[in-house]
Design goal:
127 residues; alpha+beta; Trna Endonuclease, Chain: A, domain 1; 2 helices; Restrct_endonuc-II-like; endonuclease activity; UPF0102_YraN-like
């Protein structure tokens, strides 16, 4: 019984995260970004969104929260997470033969309330 509860919580967290990523992608598309990848994975980690804004390749970390009990989404990004995102981006660039392209790391905060999600913050060049 206890394992079922943990799995249910993990599934719920994943579905909330997916909703947040979808809302973030739509938000970016409305600003003229072109989404290239969603949930791109390799050994070093996962990149929530990879997008192009004109000639800039943008790696986006999406943070979704349903409450502020544990701090803001931006506060949840640790030095370890930044390192992981940067390493994952390096792998993506290498695996796709991308060189001499300007890159940037953004963070998008999404507020989840019931079945709705809203982008509350877009930090350009977050780290």
């Amino acid at each position: 019984m206890r394992n079922d509860m943990r799995t249910g919580g993990k599934d719920q967290r994943k579905s909330k995260g997916a909703l947040g990523e979808q809302v973030a992608a739509s938000f970016l598309e409305n600003l003229g970004y072109r989404i290239i990848e969603r949930n791109w994975q390799c050994r070093s980690g996962e990149m929530d969104l990879i997008a192009a804004q004109e000639d800039i390749l943008v790696f986006i970390e999406v943070r979704s929260r349903s409450s502020s009990n544990y701090g803001t989404p931006a506060e949840s990004i640790t030095a370890r997470k930044i390192t992981q995102v940067r390493q994952t981006a390096a792998v993506y660039l290498h695996m796709n033969g991308i060189e001499d392209v300007p890159i940037r790391f953004d963070m998008i905060s999404v507020r989840l309330v019931d079945e709705t999600a809203v982008v509350t913050e877009h930090i350009i060049e977050a780290f």
